[in-house]
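Predict the 3D structure for this chain.
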Amino acid sequence: MPTANSLIFLMFLLATVSFTIIFLELKVYRSFIMGSENFLSQISNGAIPMGVIGFFMAIFSLYGLVTNPLPGFDDTLVYVPFAVLGIVLMILLFTTRYSEDISYVGFISLIAGLTLIMLDVFGAYSKISQEPFTFALLYALGGTSAIILFPISLSIGDISTKSIGIMGDLSLIKKILFILLALSEFLIGITAITYVIQMATVI
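Done. Predicted structure below.
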């Protein structure tokens, strides 16, 4: 079952990225609380493993798209979002390596998130799709996370120009965005891991 194996691997990578984002969020927020200015370096360091995972995610998605085509519109609904996520993660890696402004990554995430949600809605209400509920849930959560990343990236850009002690000036909205992102990523990771376990028992 090459298709199932490819999807299991992609789901495993997705869960890994989701929990890595949560871990990175905790480290960045801790820097705010401690009044440290090294949160940009933490984002840069955290982008390295996510960029590597994104590379493999993009490669396996494109490989599955070419070698294991799915019926109807499911190629777009299954493989393409994984490929886009992989590309976004690689962009994040290169951006943090050569620039401190990650607002462009946030904007790309916003566009990708909106597109993902539109594809999800189209797949849910279109008869040409055989998209399972698990993928519909993942894409809704993934789209929401990608959209939330945009204002967070803008706030990080603003914070990077201020002095130590900014943690006391974090608005309630920013804190809520951090919590919503962590919650959505947690749900994505749990859903992906559940899918991996279910498919592994079938295979």
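The longest helix spans residues 2-34.
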